[in-house]
């Protein structure tokens, strides 16, 4: 299977947000608004926690996918690009000095 990225999923979410809510779950969530989308994100987070505690690898993988998708929908509604989140994560690696160590030749 070819590599799939969160950036690609973000682009799909942006495109489907413009679709009819009758034919797209993404459009339905966006139309319902941030409160509903954030609630859905919270539900998926709880389901992910339960799968993790149950040590159910298959379910944890599936729930993690739901969680990441719903996070991207919430970010879309908030108008926050995924890149802003990645930039924040990158900034943190800089703070701990790990980024420099990771890119240093062994
Ligand atoms: N990754 C996802 C994805 N993960 C989960 N879901 C949907 O999230 C919904 C919520 O799951 P639940 O089981 O909790 O849903 P539910 O019980 O039907 O919902 P509630 O009654 O609890 O509100 C389901 O309808 C899932 O299909 C997703 N819907 C869409 N995507 C991606 O978004 C793309 C566009 O999808 P559409 O917007 O539907 O065209 C898809 O091709 C996928 O790439």
Number of strands: 0
How much beta, percentage-wise?
under 5%
Helix content: over 70%
The CATH class designation is Mainly Alpha
Question: Which ligands accompany this protein?
Answer: phosphoribosyl ATP
* Biggest pleated sheet: none
Radius of gyration, in angstroms, nearest whole number = 16 Å
Second CATH tier, the architecture: Orthogonal Bundle
Summarize model confidence as the mean pLDDT: 93
- Overall outline: globular
Low-pLDDT ranges: none
Number of contiguous helices: 6
In total, the number of domains comes to 1
Class of secondary structure makeup:
mainly alpha
CATH topology: Helix Hairpins
CA-to-CA gap between the ends?
Answer: 30 Å
H-E order: HHHHHH
CATH H level, superfamily name: MazG-like
Organism: Neorhizobium turbinariae
Pathway: Amino-acid biosynthesis; L-histidine biosynthesis; L-histidine from 5-phospho-alpha-D-ribose 1-diphosphate: step 2/9
EC number: 3.6.1.31
Subcellular location: Cytoplasm
Describe the 3D structure:
By secondary structure, the protein is mainly alpha-helical. Helix content is 77%, strand content 0%. The protein has six helices and no strands. The protein is globular. Phosphoribosyl ATP (PRT) binds next to α1, α2 and α4.
